[in-house]
Give the backbone structure.
Amino acid sequence: MIKAINVNKNFGEQHVLKDISIEYKPGICSLIIGASGSGKTVLLKSLVGLHDIDSGEIWYEGTQFDNLPFKEKKHLRKEIGMLFQGSALFDFATVEDNIRFPMDFFTDWSEDQKMDRVNFCLARVNLKNVNKLYPNELSGGMQKRVGIARAIALNPKYLFCDEPNSGLDPQTSILIDQLILEITQEYNITTVINTHDMNSVMEIGDQVGFIYKGNLLWEGNKDNILTSNCKELEEFVFASGMAKKVKQYMNA
Amino acid sequence: MKQTLGLVGKYFLLMKIVFSKPEKTKIFRKQFFTDTEKLVIDSIPIIAVISLFIGAVIVIQTASNIESPLIPKMYVGYMARESLILEFCSTMVALILAGKVGSNIASEIGSMRISEQIDAMEMMGINSANYLILPKIASATIFNPLLMLMSFILGLVGGAMIIMFTGIITMNQYTEGLQYAFQFYYIVYSMVKMAVFSFIITSISAFYGYYSSGGALGVGRSGTKAIVVSSVTILIANLVITQLMLN
């Protein structure tokens, strides 16, 4: 479980996160949604410690993460997997070496054990025969899968995904969403996903938090998001032409 | 001024993180040899070509400037040796490396920064500064003085070749000049300079790359700043080391 309590973050004069309090449970996909520039990515990066918060608390189970010393924070990060928006695969390494990377640093496994784990992770994300390819030889969807494989390489307890569907077609997006959901449920991981893709919300949004101008305006799930009374959320959800037609149909 | 001091402080804070114990010696060793190949071995062709030509040019220029029959021709070899060892093979080669290696390091690390690869390492609990920068500093600081020696020898060879082709002086006069009043200390001085310059090039370029921001344009700006700041710092360090070691 991850808990944020009254988290505030400023960049100079700009107050980006305003008193955000939210709790994320294991075994379900928790989504942070909101328009571009609303503070989603800042919240996600604050939760994992890539941004230092100005006030508030961030707890991982019984450990207050935000004020941990560097070494202990580093130790906890070994339990965190993260899929970045652009996949952030290492250009200098093959797919295999990308997935091995955390194993080389933090395990004493033999070469065979590492290779078994690499192949297991690749099989888990439905990739075959890509071990020796470099990231620039992969499609966007494949890069995301390799990113997920790398994120789960050390059996993390927590998984963070920053816009996992950005730049992907709708069908590939659904596959990536399903994959993240399966992995979350299979390993009982606490998964936090940052997205503005409403398809993802409707597919895997077991818990959804809507951020608007740095405020957490609404919390709920995929079942009650379409019937919320929050005006800003309604504008966000029904922003596309297709969604507007669905709404007209629902109203009728 | 305040901004410059802030940058200097940020640089030293980064160096503090860089000079921590590597996570695993095996990984550091692998990275060290990879960087040695990229930063040192790959620089050999350009340094070799430049050294050969500069050695030849120094010989021609010196010979053409010695007009007095009272000055022995062997001074051409002597002057070529002193020019190469005292200034060209360390300072000039370092300035060339600041352009080649410095932009390479700044753009490589800068690209990793803007594509979130460095964030990914930090997320894994890896000290990214230590992993990416320390092997580069170590390999360049250790091996570039050898590159300086190679440059010195090739500069002298370049001088010998132009004498063979033009007969501007005799080979005996040239070799006599090379051996005249030879001080081994100058080689030590030049190697020390090269080690310091290599540290400056790699650490400053890595600093600008590591704190790149603003997309591809930002990476370009980091590369330019890395070269300019490294070059100016090399010139200042050259003055300080020369004052300390030769005066």
Summary: Chain B has a mean pLDDT of 93.
